[in-house]
């Protein structure tokens, strides 16, 4: 039996693949390689190239590899860009999730871990987000992830009491950074860490998006969580589903503490040894002032821990990016 990782050739998905293998589970990757890289997939892991929108391909992959569960990481993940491309965002994230659930039902695969997002909360009116904090997405991306959670919930209700009853959980994560493997790094042109790394490697001054947020230093505040910790939580969630153990419908993989973009910039200077003062570009649409969440529920059930300091997160990402050449 194996676990299918959609988007498993991407930055986060490939870390999940490695964590599954390390836990003695057998990962299979489905990725259209629109943003993933074949080199991110270990040589001993099967890679099926194709889209999650291809219903026939998804079902065939589930059957061919005797899949017992899906970790659904694939999707269009850029909140700011989703404001400009809402239809594409909904196609990839909503229709893609629906197709996966339909294929799972046809192939009698009953376990799914869904990669959701802190974006489902929008701009919270509380200092510390918990699982049942009001959902007010501020972007089509956040809306699409919330709809994904609804799809899992509704399919779980529809199949309850049958021999194909869906067992599911959604893991909401925040700003995922760093690297747990020198051969894998964040390649997104929209995420803070790679934006800064690329600027520094090119000898340019990094820029940040907005310094007029309603925060103490004017830059937005987020949970920054290490990709290795994120991957480990996915594995424990998959194990609980496969074992039939109780599991919550959703978990926030938060740190309980927030870091501002300015604080991240200060860590970049400390770790890289490159002195700079970032230039300021306009804020990106759909970016809220602050999102910080407790991870207490995930700590209870998924062995969720923040195992890295901010400097260690920066250092691991910086080393992986420089290793890539």
From TrEMBL:
Domain (NAD-dependent epimerase/dehydratase): residue spans on this chain: 3-254
Domain of life: Bacteria
Assigned EC number: 5.1.3.2
Keyword Transcription in annotation: no
InterPro entries, alphabetized: Epimerase_deHydtase, NAD(P)-bd_dom_sf, UDP_G4E
One example GO MF annotation: UDP-glucose 4-epimerase activity
Family membership: Belongs to the NAD(P)-dependent epimerase/dehydratase family.
Pathway noted in the entry: Carbohydrate metabolism; galactose metabolism
Cofactor(s) needed by this chain: NAD(+)
Major enzyme class: isomerase
Keyword terms: Carbohydrate metabolism, Isomerase, NAD
Catalytic activity: UDP-alpha-D-glucose = UDP-alpha-D-galactose
Name recorded for this polypeptide: UDP-glucose 4-epimerase
Gene name, Swiss-Prot/TrEMBL: galE
Keyword Cell membrane: no
Organism: Microbacterium istanbulense
